[in-house]
Amino acid sequence: MPGEVTLADVGSLLRNSFGATLSEVINVISHPKLADIIDIIIVAFLVYEVITLVKQTRAAQLMKGILVLFLAFFGSAVFQLRTLNFLLQQVLQFGALALVVIFQPELRRALEQMGRTNIFSFSFFKTHTVDEQVREQWQTAIATVCDAVEQMSDSRTGALIVFERRSNLGEIIKTGTVLNADINVEAIGTIFYEGTPLHDGAVVVRDARIKAAGCVLPLSANLEISKDMGTRHRAALGMSENSDAICVVVSEETGIVSLAKNGVLIRRLDRQNLFSLLKSELVPELPKTEEKKKKSFRIKRNKGGDDYGKKAE
Fold first, then answer.
1. Distance between CA 156 and CA 93 in Å, rounded?
2. Closest CA relative to residue 237, chosen from 220, 223, 251
3. What's the pLDDT tens digit per position in 198-237?
């Protein structure tokens, strides 16, 4: 009958496609050009990033389901299962739109990661330079937060603190109350004290200051989260999945301190471990020239003593 797909037709189509692709590959390998090499590197990088993104999210299971659909469509065409082939064909016609809807969180995260890359980090794109004063402000803020978290852990006071990095959290800040306050132990303790209006929400820290409190965060849809974790932990994971923010959680039931980053929750942190993690993630790095100057200055002080170091300074 006209319009039917036979096994011989499918085999012929596959052979022709494979033969054309193989000949192009052999041609590229035998006569490589600069554009071909760049093309291969870009494609390999994109494939690697997609695989990494899929492994880190729930998209792995969804990709398996999509693969099953394509195999079923191919099998129905080979064995002439007309009704099944027709239904799968109708489903796959809207495949591109369905993929955008299904993978919306993953696509958004991937685009945000692309926007945070340093490809265009030329000097005229930089809004400010990192100096020692900014580093000291962050180190002081982190130490203060760690002190407050340790106290709240001992008293089993629930807390959720979000540190903004490159991803702008303006939409999250709008859901809470803007404070623009300095970070101190008393302020954090008052915000999360049970009975205060802002204790149920999250505190957002921007530029080493408390920007807002009582903020509402997106909850994670990860079904593998342990049942002993409450809404705060789900909110911290959800925030870390949708941005590059660092979230610190204090459990109200157990007092356990956790840190969420890139959709991963690190639990049972003491003060020293929490301080080290926050410092490595949040304290800006000095330019290499400044770092070399500081190292050379330390060497001079060690060799020449304090008096020589003061003269060098």
1. 54
2. 220
3. 999 999 999 999 999 999 999 987 777 877 788 999 999 9
